[in-house]
Amino acid sequence: MDASFTAEQDEIRRTLRELLHKRCGAEEVRAAVAGPAGHDPALWAALADQLGMPGLALPEAYGGVGCSVTELALAGEETGRTLAPSPLLATAVLAAPLLLALGTEAQRAELLPRISSGALTAALAVPGAGLATALALTGDNGGDWAGGGRAGGVQARRDGAGGGGAGSGGDGRGRAGWRLYGQVDQVLDGHSAGLLVVAAHTGGFARSRTLLFLVTGDAAGLVRVRQTALDATRPQARLELRNVEAELLGEDGADGADGAGRSGGTDVLGALAAVGDTAAAVLAAEAVGAADRALERTVEYVRQREQFGRAIGSFQAVKHRLADVYVAVQAARSAAYYAAWATAHGEKAGGLALAQALEALRTAAAEGIQLHGGIGFTWEHEAHLYFKRAAGDELLFGPVHRLRAHAAHMARLFEQKEVAV
């Protein structure tokens, strides 16, 4: 592999860093997360208009830039440095790839250009606390995470009594409509997204299977409540679906799907797992950017803070602690870059890279708080924002030990082999 970046990739990183440096300082971040959208709409418009961030990894045929996961990961690294709150993760990393992989040509043509332009934001709604499992990061995404049987999670049925045919409660395009019931917690940017991609069970108890459905943000019967999250820079919402009209993502067959969780012959669970590996690579780069910035701020502080007549950064013990953090961050950066390259070439390394990056971020943020002394524990200082990002990401996509355990399981690392005697 060629470990060097192209001139275009370096330009994406440089331009994005300059924009975020001007418009996404600590005070701007606090003001953005306190707003109704949970992010700065003006900054999101700038990211879309000037840099094409929402469509960075989407094909040019749908208004995208046509780049790979590597460019998306580099963008994630820069947004992670400033903890910039934006719908980039929910829209471009989680929802858009599912629309591209599973959607019909009509659905892609209608939705993806609007996402690429930044006019439409989207969110992936996975019932319960199973986002990491649904994305196959911490376990097998067999579908149980969506709420099985006759109760729990989100249930889907065809519109009309007895699940009628195409003319029964359809959407006006010859397709049978669907209705969703249930509740989804911890939906990233779910309170403000214009489009929701909802995972739901259908088929009852005997033929239960997980499918994805499209729900507009203003659908009747949809209640969205913004939740208080540990990491305020990743706003989350609770969705209540009360007989909400929905459209199946993908081709709608005679019964909507077969018994293997396939819609129109497309593997829904496989698509979720593929998106999970891409998301892990981008999240790893994000965590590396945040860890690198936390380390930079700590180094700046220990050079200025004096104790016993000298800067505390000159003490050998402080040097050793920061050197350990530096090594952890650089190792995590190498893993994140490799994961982005591997994902773009059909290999899977996102889970392990994410584990290493989250561990590096947690270490960098914790050491930053400790070495800042009393001010590091205050709400006024930004050190706690990085620590909360580390803890929040582990709650959503980890924890680290489960990410590593699942990667080892998938690689059959500890599988016993029979030895011929």
TrEMBL record:
Keyword list, A-Z: FAD, Flavoprotein, Oxidoreductase
Superkingdom of source: Bacteria
Coiled-coil zones: none
InterPro entries xrefs: Acyl-CoA_Oxase/DH_mid-dom_sf, AcylCo_DH-like_C, AcylCo_DH/oxidase_C, AcylCoA_DH/ox_N, AcylCoA_DH/ox_N_sf, AcylCoA_DH/oxidase_NM_dom_sf
Segments of skewed composition (Gly residues): 161-171
Family of this protein: Belongs to the acyl-CoA dehydrogenase family.
Name of the protein this chain belongs to: Acyl-CoA dehydrogenase
Organism of provenance: Streptomyces dengpaensis
